[in-house]
Amino acid sequence: MIMMIKLSHMKKKNIKTISFLTIISAAFLSGCTTNAIPDLPEKDMKQVEEYAAGLLLENATDHKSTLVSDEEIADALEDAKRKAELRERAEEMRRQEQESKENKQDNDDQDGGGSSDPVTAEPVYTDIDDFLGVDGIEIDYSGYQICEQYPEQTESDDWQGVAKATAGCKFVVFKFDVSNDSDSPVYLDMASVDVHFGFRFNEQVSKSALTTLLLNDLAMYRGEIQPGDTELVLLSEMTASEADNLQSAVLIMRLDDQRTENTLFSSQ
Predict the structure, then answer these.
(1) Whole-angstrom Cα distance, residue 3 to residue 21?
(2) pLDDT tens digits for 186-212?
(3) pLDDT tens digit string along 89-130?
(4) Cis peptide before 151 (omega within 30 of 0)
(5) What is the C-alpha radius of gyration for the chain, rounded to an integer number of angstroms?
(6) What is the dihedral of CA 268, 265, 171, 128, to 10 degrees?
(7) Which residue stretches of the chain have pLDDT < 50?
(8) Are 188 and 225 in contact (CB under 8 A)?
(9) Are residues 209 and 236 in contact, defined by beta-carbon separation less than 8 angstroms?
(10) What is the DSSP string of 133-166?
């Protein structure tokens, strides 16, 4: 048997493997003795075992090292953290979309001549932060832009991505300055505030604000507002023709049984 094993080294890999395994199989399948290989001393037996293990690894084409570097572990942890954040925001998006559908009927009733009695009196203007009941910051409308993609320019390593309008449509991006006049960060958790944002355009078309995964989405913002000014946005989508003929926009906010409207701009 030892001679056959040595000869098998001189042949091709497949013949070598077959010869060796044939010898081992014959020895172990033999039923005439209680010792499968009685003539091999312990030292030679260990060499045979090591050789057999080597052959198995050589012929296992799908064998790969299971060692992982520290850098790979760190990347995997960071990726898992980002995915968890996206899942959390996606779940909140589904909740917001469901509320938007439920509120759509209210919009249709009011725009279509439904009940003329509001739940509460609507002031001409209400500060956004006062209406939301947030302390330590001020939220003021600062302007808007019309685009097919927001943000229009991104860094190559910006993993949060961009929002792209449906073909034939454009975004109206409303910008808000969130001011923190203190010397320390103020935590803002809009995702936990049960508020619905909507718009009325040209005094005719009513639309809900889009819920996005953008990190500066006012409707979904959750994080610290640093001292100074932070820009957050609300997005709405309309046809390109509607966007090109936009003359006025009114922000509609609903919170519990309260509802208010703020004119953002008007050129009519």
Answers:
(1) 14
(2) 999 998 888 999 999 999 999 999 989
(3) 666 666 666 666 655 555 555 554 444 444 444 444 578 999
(4) yes
(5) 34
(6) -150
(7) 1-18, 21, 24-37, 112-124
(8) yes
(9) yes
(10) T--S-EEEEEEEEEESEESSS--TT-TT--EEPP
Query: Would you give the distance in Å from CA 185 to the centre of its chain?
Result: 25
Reading phi first (left if > 0) and then psi (alpha if -120 to 50, else beta), residue 162 is in beta
CA distance 261 to 122: 7
- Residue 114 is predicted with a pLDDT of 44
Domain ranges of the chain: 2-59, 79-266
**23 CB-near residues (< 8 Å, 6+ apart):** 1, 4, 5
234 within 8 A of 177, measured Cβ to Cβ:
no
CB 218 within 8 A of CB 131: no
Query: Residue 100 has which token pair?
Result: 């938007």
